[in-house]
Amino acid sequence: MKLLEQIRENAKKQQKTIVLPEGTEERTLQAADQVIAEGIARIILIGKPEEIHALAEKHGLKHIAQATIIDPENHAKKEAYADLLVELRKNKGMTKEQALKLVTDPLYLGTLMIKSGDADGEVAGARSATGDVLRPALQIVKTLPGISVVSGAFLLLTNKPEYGENGLIVCADCAVLPNPTAEELAQIAVATAGTARAIAKIEPRIAMLSFSTKGSAKNELVDKVVKATELAKQMAPDVLIDGEMQADAALVPSVGNSKAPGSPVAGKANVLIFPSLEVGNISYKLVQRIAGIEAVGPVLQGMAAPINDLSRGCSVSDIVNLIAITVNQAAAKK
Ligand code: ACO
């Protein structure tokens, strides 16, 4: 079975509830209908009920009737969520008046539902920019214990079995943290190991990427990756992690053997950690567009509950896949 089919099948066994703050966005609504029809998740849609019903009718979406619809302007828990928001943000000066306004913002409302235990995860971003989806998530749901950074991984599904894990490569950070420190880069590596296990179902072999392999170049950017590699190994002694190394040394056995002989990762890496967001974001988009590789994500990792951000160019099937991934993340939460 292909990975995405496996992810959808596994989601069906979990009975998780996913909130979709962009309930009046047409692709999101179509995806919600399919998710409910296939039993991938229970769905909460945020949006004006009359607008959602009109769109459902326009597209012939029969299963939307089974979703819970929450009107952001007028819902039973408005007061309770506002109190929770004040409690969570009082050291940032949040007043009740500000909180009552923010709980009508679907992106804040969605994260407050998760924080209150009313939903297991969230998917948004078909209509909103990444920063607008992430900000409330980072402020309200925050990070997992022991993790201070959220990052975004992609699953690259190549048709070249000689690379990664039978053609599958997990890579990060491609979505969130513009310029990570060595400590943050180490955390990104450890979080990506978790995503590789929980979502890609592979045992990670992590390459910490650079333009240098094992000291071939001297530069402070290389030093950062060397330090991050050491820290990541200390944080996750049970995971195979090596670096610094170039992308060809990470992926091609003959290059790995010659540039990093004896490395447990070189030539067979299935997880690639980029030194910065610029490199990660540009790299995944280049391989996606030029090489035609399917790139699934970003899968946000390190968050205390799963919240995932869609690209605004997403298709209905991208949304269904990301909802299924979010369910899998929720199920993998300890
Ligand atoms: N991990 C954990 N917490 C974070 C992170 C992070 N990576 N970044 C910010 N935070 C926290 C802050 O500590 C702060 O918490 P506090 O308010 O409780 O003190 C809160 O989040 C808000 O942080 P700010 O820095 O004030 O918010 P800002 O709006 O500047 O930035 C954001 C956060 C949205 C993640 C920003 O770094 C960003 O825009 N990153 C790039 C996203 C992007 O555009 N990616 C490319 C597109 S995605 C794609 O192509 C797949």
Features of the shown structure:
binds acetyl coenzyme *A; globular; single chain; 16% strand; alpha/beta; 6-stranded mixed sheet; 45% helix; 2 domains; 13 helices; Rossmann fold; 334 residues; 5-stranded parallel sheet
Model description:
The strands form 2 sheets. The chain has a 6-stranded mixed sheet with strand order 8-7-9-6-5-10, sandwiched between helices. Strands 3-2-1-4-11 form a 5-stranded parallel sheet, with helices on both faces. The protein is built from 13 helices and 11 strands. 49% of the residues are buried. The chain is α/β, with parallel strands linked by helices and 334 residues long. Helix 9 (220-235) links the parallel strand 7 (205-209) and strand 8. The protein has 2 domains: 3-142 and 304-333, Rossmann fold (3-Layer(aba) Sandwich); 151-295, 3-Layer(aba) Sandwich (Rossmann fold), CATH 3.40.50. The mean pLDDT is 95. It has helices at 3-12, 26-38, 49-59, 78-89, 96-102, 106-115, 130-141, 182-198, 220-235, 247-251, 253-259, 277-290, 316-332; strands at residues 17-20, 42-46, 68-70, 121-124, 151-157, 168-172, 205-209, 240-245, 271-273, 294-301, 307-309. Acetyl coenzyme *A binds at residues 92, 130-131, 134-135, 138-139, 143, 149-150, 174-178, 281, 298, 311.
